[in-house]
Design the sequence.
């Protein structure tokens, strides 16, 4: 190995900045599309969640934290129940039923947990952004009673910009 050997690749600062900016745009577009779908498809539950967050923010935070803990704790317990039910059926010579219980049970568990964590990752950001957007619109236009789209876009813009700040990015 030569003493002054240079790596065959180099980091281009412009590409790093471009990648960072594209990440911001990707986050904004993803959350905007999911938020617009939520406004269109589930407006009543979305409004109920935003009202609950506005009325009792600390209670909402506590319930969210508790539900995450319970979901993570319930995962091994549910897997154990599915496994034991399938094993019990296998022991009484219903092997085909055992395989069906395991296949359907673990598939349903995976689907349920995927949906739960997708809601936890994306849904919470959309709800908080919507509440922040409503707050901004009420602050600057006291009688705002329009569509939820503009508060969503304003709140998501604030969220994405704050998330892009390196120290605040973990939020």
Sequence:
């Amino acid at each position: 190995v030569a003493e002054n050997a240079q790596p065959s690749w180099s980091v281009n600062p412009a590409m790093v900045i471009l990648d960072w900016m594209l990440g911001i745009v990707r986050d904004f577009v993803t959350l905007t599309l999911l938020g617009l779908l939520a406004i269109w498809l589930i407006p009543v539950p979305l409004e109920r969640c935003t009202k609950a967050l506005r009325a009792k923010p600390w209670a909402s935070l506590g319930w969210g934290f508790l539900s995450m803990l319970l979901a993570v704790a319930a995962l091994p317990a549910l897997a154990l129940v599915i496994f034991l039910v399938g094993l019990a059926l296998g022991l009484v010579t219903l092997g085909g039923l055992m395989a069906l219980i395991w296949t359907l049970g673990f598939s349903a568990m995976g689907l349920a947990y995927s949906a739960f964590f997708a809601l936890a990752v994306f849904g919470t950001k959309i709800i908080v952004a919507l509440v922040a957007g409503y707050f901004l619109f009420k602050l600057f236009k006291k009688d705002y009673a329009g569509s939820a789209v503009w508060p969503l876009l304003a709140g998501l813009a604030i969220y994405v910009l704050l998330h892009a700040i390196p120290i605040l990015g973990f939020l």
